[in-house]
Amino acid sequence: MQIAVIGTGYVGLVTGAGLADFGNDVTCVDIDVSKIEALKQGKIPIYEPGLEALVSKNVQEGRLNFTTDLPTAIRAARAIFIAVGTPPRPDGSADLRYVEDVARTIAQHMNGPKVVITKSTVPIGTGRMIEGILAQAGNGHTAAVLSNPEFLREGSAIEDFMKPDRVVIGASDKESIELMKEIYAPLHSLEIPFVVTNVESSELIKYASNGFLATKISFINEIAVLCEKIGGNVHDVAIGMGLDSRIGPKFLQAGPGFGGSCFPKDTLAVADIARQYGYNFQIIEAVLRVNHDIKERMVDKVADALGEVAGKTVALLGLAFKPETDDMRDSPTIPLITGLQSRGAAIRAYDPQAMDNAKTMFENVTFCRDAYDAAKDADALVIATEWNEFRALNLSRLKSLVRQPLIVDLRNVYDPQRMKSEGFRYFSVGRKA
Ligand code: NAD
Asked: What angle in degrees, to the nearest 10, is found between the helix axes of 333-342 and 282-306?
């Protein structure tokens, strides 16, 4: 199947490489000339484990190529995946301008029947909106518009794409559904469940899933607050809850609040969608407030541990919103850094992959070579992202570098008793210091 994937970011690039690996002929398109030039030279613009090998294999085998020439890619393709960004507007609604731009370009260059598939996370009604734009093309060609939301997680995107829990397809005609099964043939034969529904339900499945996961994270974060007040241990509470098969153990790790390019914007968007339909989605509105407050609590947690913040140096270990990615979008470290800076702290920071992105976002942060470099003369070490390399730090070396042995572990990586016996003042989330 000849496929065009429009938008070659985290989702577009993984989708393009994955669909090529399934045996399709894929052209990945982007308006970012430098991104496409880099990809043509075999350079992967993002950090995602396994992606470089998958891209290079499929390029070499002749099933994957890159271009900025959208009209040619549209004309050559039978199926067109839209994977451009849908960032939040200031009011929380999803900004659809990139999706609309792409739909207009498709309309202009249709040269035969096309299947247009939204991979981007888009509000309910977007499929119909694209249909409207394509119907105005006026060149006599028809297009079926489908929804096929993506559920991959950055950091394990290849595995998630190649072995998803389910493939969701929103479509209204049989022919398009069969075409999607052909595109995803290897998953079909692996007996991965295909959920086939109408376009609106498919669009909502994505928001409902992310809204639910964000709720689960916020729930355990509030349980952590309660644990701190009653002298409980959130880790034990999470295990006790998670062993209930109706609850399950995933997404019950207390921490500094959810971040990244999806949960914050998708919870804002689902609240906005509900409002537009005259409904107050109370749980999601509460999740948004809780997540905001949890992030503020983290600043307070570091400040309380330090006593006086002004003039102190904080070493931040981790910047990305989670390990195994370089993505800084909506990372909880952003309000943490700005909050501590506004109280007069100096920040030294290190992240294994996200430093290049972080450097464009912060002023007056000293970016360091590694965790030990960051620790030099620090009054507090803050573990902000649970990269594996922060799980086995040389504690005596750290102790010799810092100004005072104080660790604030926002990811509960270490055992409080052990840290105490190593001579650190140690604070974590939802556990007794
Ligand atoms: P991204 O910002 O990494 O990539 C978007 C790409 O689209 C950019 O490279 C941009 O240059 C390109 N683009 C914009 N306008 C274009 C146009 N007119 N023609 C061609 N290319 C254009 O975004 P992302 O993280 O890949 O997310 C894309 C969509 O997928 C969003 O809707 C997001 O919510 C959804 N999603 C993301 C993830 C994730 O983990 N990142 C997971 C599931 C779903």
From this structure: 50
Which residue has a Cα nearest atom 23 of ligand 1? Answer: 85
**C-alpha 87 to ligand 1 mean position (Å):** 9
Residues 125-170: pLDDT tens digits? 999 999 999 998 767 888 999 999 999 999 999 999 999 999 999 9
- Has residue 433 got a pLDDT over 70? no
Q: Which of 28, 227, 262, 368 is catalytic?
A: 262
End-to-end, the C-alpha distance of the chain in Å comes to: 58
Ligand 1 binding pocket (C-beta < 6 A) is 6-12, 29-32, 35, 70, 83-86, 98, 101-102, 120-121, 150, 152, 154, 261-262
Atom of ligand 1 nearest to the CA of 157: 40
Task: Name the token pair of 165.
Answer: 């829990």
pLDDT of 195 > 70? The answer is: yes
Phi, psi of 298 (to 5 degrees): -65, -40
Tallying the residues shown for the chain, one arrives at 433
CATH number for 9: 3.40.50.720
29, pLDDT greater than 80: yes
Residue 139's pLDDT is what? 78
DSSP-derived secondary structure letter, 89: P
Report if residue 207 sits inside a domain.
Answer: no
Q: Which tens digits make up the pLDDT trace of 47-58?
A: 999 999 999 999
The 425-428 sheet, strands edge to edge: 365-367, 346-350, 313-317, 380-383, 406-409, 425-428
pTM above 0.90, yes or no: yes
Instruction: State which residues form the domain around 296.
Output: 212-427
Residue 397 lies in a domain: yes
Ligand 1 centroid to Cα of residue 418, in Å, is 43
Domain assignment present for residue 292? The answer is yes
DSSP label at residue 352: S
pLDDT tens-digit profile of 377-400?
Answer: 999 999 999 999 999 999 999 999
* pLDDT confidence of residue 138: 67
d(CA 307, CA 175): 66
Catalytic: 28? no
Residue with tokens 């900025």: 68
Going from the Cα of 9 to the center of ligand 1, the distance in angstroms, rounded, reads 5
